[in-house]
Design a protein that fits this description.
Helix content: 10-25%
CATH architecture of the largest domain: Alpha-Beta Barrel
Distance between the termini: 104 Å
Low-confidence stretches: 170-187, 425-437
Largest sheet: 7 strands, mixed
Number of strands: 36
Strand content: 25-35%
Number of domains: 4
Amino acid sequence: MIKPIEHPVTMDLSNRIYNNKAIIIKKNDTNSHKFMLSILDNSVPYPLTGYSAKIYIEKRDSSKVFLSCMIDDALNGKISSLLTTQSLTCAGLTTAEVTIYGTAGEILTGMSFNFIVSDVVRDDAAIESTNDFSALTEAIVKVDGWDAQFDSKYAGLEAQYATDLTLVKTQQAANVTQLNRVSNNPNSYSNGIISFIDDDARATFRTVWTPFLSANPNFKMGIAVVEDWVVAGADLTLAEIKAFQTQGHEIYSHTKSHDNITTLNIDEQFRLSQIWMQENGLLCNDILVYPGGSADIPTKNVARKYYKYALNTVALQNIVPVDNWYVNRIFFENNTLAQNKALVDACLLNNTWIVFGSHSHTLINNPTAMAQMQPLIDYITSKGIAIMPFKQASELKGNSIAIGEFTSENSIFVGMNGVPRVGVSPSKVKCLTDSDYNNMDAPITDYPFKSITTKSLSTYGDIFKGLGGIMTVYLMGDASYNYATFVPNNLNEIYTRQWRSGAWTTWTKISPTTPPIAVTGGATGGFLSNPISNFPISTVYVCSCDNGTTNTPTGFGGVYTVYRMPDDTYSYSSYKVYNSDSMYHRRWNGTTWTAWVKVSAV
């Protein structure tokens, strides 16, 4: 007899589910694969004594399967279910959902999880994909058997148990209705989420974060801990860290010693840290925060062996599907409150995931950054954006499937919302059709990964110049390099913009500066009092002035030149006195011209 392949799945009934790895099973395998489920409630084993459990499966063709589960270890919440042939008759992404039945009619359904049924070479055409309610059939047969026993042996007791029998039958019939609740993507979440992580678990955490957490008991965050620093005892102790975990905060690995991971034994740094966390009951031991914030592909490959997610310090928001082993993080302490509020607005607009980072030992020396903590949290809350610790948020904004290196052509990532991202050739170029007109500000996620996309915009679609033109979008492997160019119709000009923090920046002109404009006839009167806004951007404006022109530096005529830059803090003007070598400068201070300053020696 074939020993079934066991596929572990850890499920937390408080709306979280963790797959240790992608589950891929061959189509039409029979009684050879078993789900081994660990049921938790807020990370504690959920007792199942006296309960029963069923598993509902919806296949890619929308047909459904209903299977019984074995209670393997009731005290520790361990159950299993052997997959039948009908569970695996349709290749593609398949959804499973576990339901627990109590002894008094209670029904408790956990979060759904996905697995992949992979096609086979052999021809199993004779096996047709249909609905399979074997568990329901078993239950109804049992109920009918109980009826028969009462009729034949306990006729006098039937009235006594009639109510119970009716309840059992009603529960089993209701299971058929419950099958219709199995959606193809139950974890789809159509709003932004924001998470907070403080690095290092320094002693300064007690001063910076502990009072804040006491004042905001519903605010839950993550703490990245370094094993050697905790053991040394100079910073947060293990007991303090465990207490934060008990309060609902999450604890992540920040490696064993926080040394430069590019020069040490990376495998040892990751592996030993995870073992230490597991031995000490730190539950989020499959989340890594890279020391130094960056990691090359070889480092990511090692992280992939031990961790489900790893975080960088690239200051960008996260768009589903994410790179599991290079999730972006923005350090709010490096921004002003206004800048962080703008990021929150972009998160709300684009349904992204922001992971804000911090260092308590930096915050304590930055009163301005500390002062924005409460206003920032209040602003996020006022916008209706959920604040969740990272691992909890990853079950809504992370991936259900992550295979391969994110930047590789040979990779598959599927977000919890069902959005796939399959690696494509970096040389892919796409020219969009008429149906893609008039969408200048479409988000970067609308374009193929690692591609160059060119689109023609009509005058209506060109919301920048109103002239129409050609826009080209460059979507690179590293999000920090994504940008677009635009050439308006009938203009010899080129503009560029970048995709930053979940939104496009403003267009900036990069084509050669317009040649100097020489004004014939000269300037008179109060021309030199004209503000900088009267002059074209990116131009050098030159004119002559006669002796009657006011606001000249000497009262004599001369040559007046205005240098108008895209950023007016760089704009200035000069004045060369007629029939002299004297030269004067002044600058635009944002609201007016400064006084003339002589810059020549004569």
